[in-house]
């Protein structure tokens, strides 16, 4: 979803997830789950 939403490759999408994870002190898996739960029309 992040790759499509932001037009980035897989490496950049993971970097984005990792940055959000670090900034919020939240596991990457939890951040990814929240992105999916919010659906395709919402930003992370």
From TrEMBL:
ANTAR domain sequence ranges: 1-36
Family matches, as Gene3D superfamilies: Winged helix-like DNA-binding domain superfamily/Winged helix DNA-binding domain
MF terms in GO: RNA binding
Record-linked Pfam families: ANTAR (PF03861)
PROSITE patterns, sorted: ANTAR
InterPro entries linked: ANTAR, WH-like_DNA-bd_sf
Protein's name according to its UniProt entry: ANTAR domain-containing protein
UniProt source species: Rhodococcus jostii
Source taxonomy: Bacteria, Bacillati, Actinomycetota, Actinomycetes, Mycobacteriales
């Amino acid at each position: 979803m992040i790759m499509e939403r932001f037009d980035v490759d897989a490496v950049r999408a993971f970097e984005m997830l990792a940055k959000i994870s670090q900034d919020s002190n939240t596991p990457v898996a939890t951040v990814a789950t929240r992105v999916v739960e919010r659906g395709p029309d919402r930003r992370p």
